[in-house]
C-alpha cells in the first residue's frame, strides 16, 4: 500500500532524510520511532505531499507523491503534529467545513459527522466550541477530520504526544477500530513502548536513516522469552553458581563478587521460575533476594534487529 523508494530530503546542506526504502502492506499499523529531529515529520510531510522530496519517490496505493499528488491526497488522511486554533467554530461546524472541502454533499454530511464523532468518542461534544476541548479531545477531533473522505491510508504525526494515560488508552482503542476497518496506518512517536502498544511493525529512524525494522510480535515474544535474574547471596557464590548451572532454562551465569550477587538469563515459565527460587532456598544457598530485571524494550528491539535493516 505504501512503497517508499530511496526517499531523500535535504534542507540546504543538511540531509534530514537519506535513502529511505520502506514497503508497508495494506492493513498494517506501522510505527516510526526516532528522537527529535530524526526525520519523522519530514517523511510524513513528503507522504502527505506537503513537501517535495529532494530525490527518490513514494507511492501510495500506486500513486506517486511526485507525479500524482492530487491522487495521493484523496487516498490519505493526514494528522500533523501541530494543529491550528479555531476560534468560534463548533466541533460539527469544523467537520462540516472539511467535508465541504472534500466536496461531500451537504445532505450527506450530517450522518457522516455523527458517525465520525462516534468513532472518536466525541458524540457528547457535538456543538461544543473546538477551543474549549481538552488536548486529547482536540487530537481526536483532528483524527475525525483526517477520516472525512474515508481514506485508505492514515498518516498520524505523534497522535499520542502530550496525552494523559487515559487519553492514550482511548487513542489506542480508536486505532484498533481503524485497523479493523482495514486502514493502513503510519504513526510516529519518540516513545517506543507507546508505539509498541498500537502497532504491528516498528521502524527506527536515526538521523534521517532507517536503522531498524521489526514486528512488534517478535519484540514481545523476545521480551517474554528471556528474563534476566539477579540473585543476591549471603554466603559464598561458588555453591550457588554450581546449583544454577545444573538447572534447566539457565544460561550466561555471571558472578559479581563485590555486590555479592550472580546474574543469569532464564527462559523458563513463571511457574518454573517460582520452583527455581523455592529449590534455591531449600538448598540453603543463602539467598537474600531473587529478582527479575526489567528488560528495556529499546535494548531488546535494537538487539534483535541488529544487522537486519541496518543500512550503514
Ligand atoms: N524547513 C526546515 N529547514 C531546515 N531544517 C529543517 C527544516 N525542517 C526540518 N529540519 C531539520 O530536519 C531534521 C528532521 O526534522 P523532522 O521534523 O523531520 O524530525 P522529527 O523526527 O519529526 O522530529 P520531532 O520529533 O522533533 O518532530 C531536524 O534536524 C530539523 O531541524
From TrEMBL:
The keyword Protein biosynthesis does not apply. SMART domains: AAA. Residues 2-232 form the ABC transporter domain. It holds the Pfam family ABC_tran. PROSITE patterns: ABC_TRANSPORTER_2. GO terms for molecular function: ATP binding. Keywords: ATP-binding, Nucleotide-binding, Transport. Coiled coil: none annotated. PANTHER family: ABC TRANSPORTER, ABC TRANSPORTER, ATP-BINDING PROTEIN. Belongs to the ABC transporter superfamily. This is ABC-2 type transport system ATP-binding protein.
